[in-house]
Amino acid sequence: MTNSLRALAWLLALPLHDALAGEVEMLHWWTSPGEQAAFAVVTTQLQGAGVDLKDAAILGGGGNSAMEVLQARAIAGNPPALAQLEGQAIASWTLLGFIQPQDEVAGEQEWDRQLLGVAPRVNKIGGHYMGIPVNVHRLNWMWVNRALLARLDMDPPTDWPGFLDAVRALRAKGIKPLALGNDPWQVALLFESLALGMGGKEYYQKAFVELDPVALGSDTSRQILDRFRELSELVLPTLSGQSWDQATADLAEGRAAFQLMGDWVLGDLLARGVAVPEQVQCLPAPGTQGLYVYNMDSFVMFNANLPKDHLTIARALASPDFQLAFNRAKGSIPVRRELSLADFNPCAQLSRIDYDRAEAAGNLMPSVADSMALHPLYQKAVESELYRFFNQPDLDREGVIRRLGAVARSASSKG
Question: In principle, which of 51, 281, 286, 310 could form an S-S bond with 46, CB 3.0–4.6 Å?
């Protein structure tokens, strides 16, 4: 072997932060226009702290592909220094011993006192902050192309019967009713809003957060699945495998009337130069007024490639100035309670108002479809059943209920 080949082999064997001095790799799945604008804020913030960031973006809006890459790299002993994680995945990686606690910075910045209440619920495992929380997203939004509805003299629906009536009317006029990509996480997110809007928060909590077999086998579940099948029959002919941001482009450009999706849509609309809420309006998903379905993005650091300046990085990513700039771009709200949203978009301001009201009323609901409520294994099982039911007309609801019940029993047996 030549000296140059030996040097190359040695270099490739090194952890990335040693091989590329001063460069810190971050794995994430932010690839849409709004997400890229938000990631640019991350890069700028860390550069200001003297840290060069290597972008390791993985395509796939739901993050499933990114998690597969992360698992493979962690098993191989070469995870990235930083990674975007959500919800229950933080606890899973913590239990495996892979990630670094953030207690020192959490104590300095008084996270227990300063952060919105959902942040410790998601990021604090066994009394230790394992993730750096950066935002809160609201998921039960309905985004409405105002000009399209005005041209048809239609009002935005406020309940699911009204939504289905609107879908039928739009189809009759040859207009795509719903901006939606036909992939599992988008379909599961649509179902989540339907289940909450029809069943209410107690049903949603029992059936899809606690995976209670009685709630899953109830007549309420049957009614919701019947409505879900009705919706699938109406919208499937207009769907494709487009990404969520391609669906948002359909909404923005008047090719679709509605999108039921989290407020990362706001970040994308703003990145596209769309006036919100003047052109595209933000309203609670039908039947979910007063309820707030949340998820949040967090950053974690992996012990195997822990940067030497990890405290500097954590302080920079948890700072108020970063929170403001990042969330303005992302469409979400800052996780720090004391920050003013006076210069945020009106939809983000409304999100914070609704968050505070929901928190006071006990109406904050973790997202099932977006990693907040269930262990990733059970989340994927539920998502798979809903996706198959949505796409396969020959699948009957009783079979879905039986299989969801089996998932619930498996989760219960594992404690």
Answer: 51
Q: Is 248 left (phi over 0), alpha (psi -120 to 50) or beta?
A: alpha
Domain that holds residue 178: 141-293+368-413
Average pLDDT, rounded, for the chain: 92
For tokens 């699948």, name the residue.
395
Residue 359 is assigned to a structural domain of this protein: no
Q: How far is CA 413 from CA 335, 380, 406, 407, in A?
A: 35, 17, 11, 10
Position 363 in a domain: no
Number of H helices, E strands in the chain: 20, 14
23-28/52-57 β-pairing: parallel
Per-residue pLDDT band for 59 (boundaries 50, 70, 90) equals confident
Last residue of a domain, one of 304, 319, 352: 352
Residue 15 lies in a domain: no
Q: What is the mean pLDDT of residues 144-158?
A: 96
Q: What is the pLDDT of residue 7?
A: 30
Q: State whether 34 and 182 are in the same domain.
A: no
